[in-house]
Amino acid sequence: MTLNLKNIPTQAGGWFKPKEVLDAEAILVEVSAWDRQRPTPNGPKDSALATVSIFRTPEQLSSLTPEVSQGMRIEQTVLARDLETMVGSAVLVTVAQIPPTKPGANPAWVWRQVNDAATRNQVIAYAEQRDKAVEAAVTAAPTFD
After folding, report:
1. What whole-number distance in Å separates Cα of residue 48 and Cα of residue 39?
2. Would strands 90-98 and 45-55 be described as parallel, antiparallel, or unpaired?
3. Starting from the edge strand earliest in sequence, which strands make up the sheet with 67-74, in order?
4. Which terminus of the chain has fewer Cβ atoms in its 10 Å neighbourhood, N or C?
């Protein structure tokens, strides 16, 4: 029997704070769950649960060593809603803040797609390397049959 190893989506990675990753080179968001109007202490919010790999600097990108947070909760309105259809998928993005459209409103955080081919190829290489390491670990694991 082949081992089908999966992660249980839990919130062990804290909350996504866009202001802290505003200058990141690339952010790989792998969405594992999405909830509409999840109850929170600040009222119900749309919410995504994801593994977030942040390449803050060009050095992290070239060495394929991002900061990885598994089970990170994303609850900023626009960011969470954009991830609704991405469950089981990944997106390669950065974040930006856009000015409010109404006077007195707060600026909104939005995803910006990474279109630079070199950056995309480096992040894809990271994901392939990570997946090969997981496959090797699963192959090396003992079977208990």
Report:
1. 13
2. unpaired
3. 67-74, 45-55, 26-38, 90-98, 108-113
4. C
